[in-house]
Design brief:
By secondary structure, the protein is α+β, with helices and mostly antiparallel strands. The protein has 3 domains: about 70-90 and about 435-700, Alpha/Beta hydrolase fold, catalytic domain (Rossmann fold, 3-Layer(aba) Sandwich), CATH 3.40.50; about 100-345, 7 Propeller (Methylamine Dehydrogenase, Chain H), CATH 2.130.10; about 350-430. It contains 11 helices and 41 strands. The strands form 10 sheets. The protein has an 8-stranded mixed beta sheet with strand order 33-34-36-35-37-38-39-40, with helices on both faces. Strands 4, 5, 6, 7 and 8 form a 5-stranded antiparallel beta sheet that branches. Cleaves peptide bonds on the C-terminal side of prolyl residues within peptides that are up to approximately 30 amino acids long. Has an absolute requirement for an X-Pro bond in the trans configuration immediately preceding the Pro-Y scissible bond. It comes from Larkinella terrae. Belongs to the peptidase S9A family.
Amino acid sequence: MYKSMLTGLFLLAEIAGSMAQSNSVSSMLKYPQTRKTDQIDEYHGTKVADPYRWLEDDRSAETGAWVKAQNAVTFGYLEQIPYRKQIEKRLEQIINYPRYSAPGRKNDWFYFYKNDGLQNQSVLYRQKGLNGVPEVVIDPNKLAADGTTRLTSFDLSKDGRYAAYALSKAGSDWQEIFVMDMQTLKSLPDKLEWVKFTGAAWQGDGFYYSRYDKPGAGQELSSKNEFMKVYFHRRGTAQSADELIYEDKTHPLRYFFAQTTEDERFLILNISEGTDGSEIWYKDSQAGDKQFKRLFEGFKYNYSVVDNLGDQLLVYHNNGAPNYKVSKIDPKTGALSDFVGEKPEKLDHANTAGGKLFVNYLKDVTSRIYVYDLSGKLENEVQLPGLGTVSGFGGEKDDSFVFYTFTSFTFPPTIYRYEIATKKTALFRAPEVDFKPTDYETKQVFFNSKDGTRVPMFLTYRKGLKLDGTNPTMLYGYGGFNISLTPAFSALLIPFLEQGGIYASMNLRGGSEYGETWHEQGMKLKKQNVFDDCIAAAEYLIAQKYTSPQKLALRGGSNGGLLVGAVINQRPDLFRVAIPQVGVMDMLRFHKFTVGWGWVSDYGSSDNADEFKAIYAYSPIHNIKTGIKYPATMITTADHDDRVVPAHSFKYAATLQELYKGPNPALIRIETNSGHGASNTKKNIETMADIYAFTLWNMGVKVLK
């Protein structure tokens, strides 16, 4: 099933004096001079300097020159690492295999994504029947010379005759929506602009979508996004003719997301004030509703409509159930009854297909799938290939089978077909990756945090690992926004494991691994718990001799970048390397850019006195101190990141370079034509090659052929 791993490509060797060589190179680094201003703000009686405020203008000529100068230093440093290109070559080799998504059915057609291996973007295909000949529907690789235009969504009309699809350019969250005739596979003249965080919810001859007003010129990637609106677009018409369905002129900082049930009877309006808590309104077309009616008042709990059963709606929620449950509600009367009650494990999500309800539970961060009939009776558990993560089990009411994908750290995403009537699973499509899974193992361990909380962590490494404290280790975490870090395969992780590396994935509080209680313990005034969990994880790895502070790297992205920045301020002695990626580094001003206001529900805000005190105590930029021996640090960001704007990383890098006077490098790597995540495969490979090269070089590890 899997190709054998190429042996002898890389060997791990310790080089006497390489650490000294690395430090010597670092001590000769000359960082660009960053202009300081006397900008001072006052928060609840506390004066806070912000001397690099000018870097927030990421479109100014001065900022552009600063970016160019910083990249010259960073790439000059990286180019000295003798095995940097070797690592990049191995990454290209390991990811160069066909990767498929699970198919989705619409009438006689099956739609799926495929990447041949090194394609910058996955291609959308369809075929008639499971044995049909695939044909290309949309190939994003042909839409931009540098391969940075992405297909971000594809929504078919109920009859499958038309599709609304969205494209984003250079990694931006902004999208444009187009309409395709599925008989001819030709796009219609329809073009919808200034769209963000939405899909297309079809009803009849058009669809609902959300958008913002056009931002000011030059402010497209940084200005605060306010007053989202919901429109209905009728196929074949101009965007200017779209009907405004919903707006709220009194609450500028809310998200609105429309969805329709499969039978298109119910229009559901999901409203949120951030990343946590929601309110649900609805219209019943069968009842002739002209106005929205409120189904659930917000914003204390999270609600999500799964489907309708005739007049009733199935709702996934945590009202009175921190581990979530599914309830049935009669919209007319508001009568609510349990459909699938709460359990000790977190109910992670629920889907309907083929007249069944499929629910996915997390038991110590691994999936368990159960099938219920539509009376709420448990029928069976689906037997999975092992302990890992499952996605899929969605479809339409007349489906006789569904697909799901199973993955784990050493188990590449593999697609299975589940027959609903017979309850049997069969392998549908397995990838062939250039490595041997049986050479590696994953172990789940538990450690106690500062307050005694038991926290899980997954460790993946080559079999035969010696616990002698010499293993290069990459510690990865997130810890926020109700997001779980479940086991998942990444081909780009394999080259690090091949070097004898350990990949450690922490399940920190702030996530949803153990339900809403776990999430709440890492929010707002309790955010320090997340950093304490991370510190305890590092201490565990060192105490158990998996690694040592000289061989331990801490990495995280977005909210995980905040984690890295906060933790190395508090315990720099635990780490040799730090990789904060696209991090939220200025906790006092994050809510002033694009959609940063939506994170207040998780972080709190500097506008609130108590919350200011809590976030100011850990805000990465504001807690960098002189006299601390910081780890070798490489910050990564991108010029089109309009979610966590690059100003966070710019100001953090400038502050670190100003205040840290030690021998370790403090670099920032700024990608172009990319966003919050890599905008194409090539950029992803290049970024990971630089992260691995920087990490191993500063650990004193050399990779040899």
